[in-house]
Design brief:
Shape: globular
Strand content: 25-35%
CATH topology of the largest domain: Aminopeptidase
CATH class of the largest domain: Alpha Beta
Oligomer: single chain
Number of domains: 2
Largest sheet: 11 strands, mixed
Radius of gyration: 20 Å
Structural class: alpha+beta
Number of strands: 15
């Protein structure tokens, strides 16, 4: 890869790119954001979106999508150009962006390679191809999911789109907080959650499932024509059997009608222990006529200040991030 440069504005059609390239989405994460070009012989082949988070002691870069190939003329060189681009990102981040480390990316950001000296793990995300016929998607769905959807309909569970406003976001935040608490995990403060969703309200959808006008399950989906991403979701409790099945199936149909190409269930650990919650979650995602987009997630230290961040994170979350947890697995 000859050169990396910062893009002032996207020449590509935003609608055909993953939503995480969108300026509104990136600015909802951090006021410092942008896109990087990967050029070879002055021809652009890859682009990637990033944000920079500036703390008092350190600052770090986060990539919000894997490299997106915008030129198909590289032929057999494409794999090597991809690797060169990813390696060059680290050098560019160090020399020109002045960050102390590159953080673990969000779980929809699946790289096909990770750089030398990075800490990386195998990871993936389950996707359903919405360009398939509805009947094909339904026939390839796990029969248990079809039964759960039918059961939810018989119980008069109602699927609805929610307005992205203060009232709805309070209810959704409650559901998401309850869901995370079941796994002994924290969820974002309502102020942060509301600010983010209000800022991306025209590039996201929130869907809910109701019983007797009570919200019992919900999902938050940033989207473009490329894909809809199940970024947040959960249920009031585990007693509402079929509610999440109904939510996903109707959301898939909604985005299919909009001409969206993929429905991304976001994040999949590779070969989780069968006794773990992650195995059950993965089986659930697999059942929706999905294929696994497999690859890697990674992070890398650039300066010594990474260790300050590492210490702070371990104090807040002793198990660390996904990469740390997978690296520390004892069942492999």
């Amino acid at each position: 890869m000859n050169e990396i440069s910062i893009i002032d504005s996207l020449a590509e059609n935003d609608e055909l790119l993953p939503i995480h390239f969108n300026y509104k989405y990136l600015s909802s994460v951090s006021p410092r954001y942008g896109h990087l070009n990967g050029l070879f012989n002055r021809v652009k082949y890859f682009i990637i979106p990033y944000t920079i988070t500036d703390k008092k002691i350190y600052k770090y870069l986060t990539f919000h999508s894997s490299p997106f190939q915008v030129n198909s003329d590289c032929g057999i060189k494409s794999q090597q150009l991809y690797k060169d681009f990813v390696d060059s990102l680290v050098i560019f981040a160090d020399k020109f962006l002045g960050v102390d480390f590159i953080s673990q990316p969000p779980p929809w950001t699946i790289f096909k390679y990770f750089p030398r000296n990075a800490i990386g793990i195998e990871f993936g995300s389950y996707r359903s191809n919405l360009l398939e016929d509805e009947s094909t998607i339904l026939s390839e769905m796990n029969p248990k999911h079809r039964n759960m959807i039918s059961r939810a309909n018989r119980q008069n569970f109602i699927f609805k789109e929610l307005e992205i406003d203060h009232s709805s976001l309070l209810k959704v935040h409650d559901i998401l907080t309850i869901t995370m608490n079941r796994s002994n995990l924290p969820f974002d403060k309502i102020e942060n959650f509301e600010n983010k969703l209000l800022s991306i309200r025209d590039i996201a959808k929130i869907f809910g499932v109701f019983e007797n006008n009570i919200l019992i399950a919900c999902g938050v989906f940033p989207y473009s024509k490329f894909a809809a991403y199940y970024e947040y979701g959960g249920s009031l409790n585990n007693n509402y059997v079929g509610a999440m099945n109904l939510l996903h199936w109707n959301a898939m149909l909604y985005f299919k009608k909009l001409g969206v190409q993929y429905y991304d269930f976001v994040g999949a650990r590779i070969n989780p222990p069968k006794s773990s919650k992650y195995y059950s979650i993965q089986k659930f995602k697999q059942g929706f006529s999905t294929t696994l987009d497999a690859g890697y997630i990674w992070k890398i230290r650039i300066t010594w200040k990474y260790y300050i961040y590492k210490l702070n994170m371990l104090i807040r979350s002793p198990k660390g991030d996904i990469i740390d947890q997978e690296k520390n697995r004892t069942d492999i």
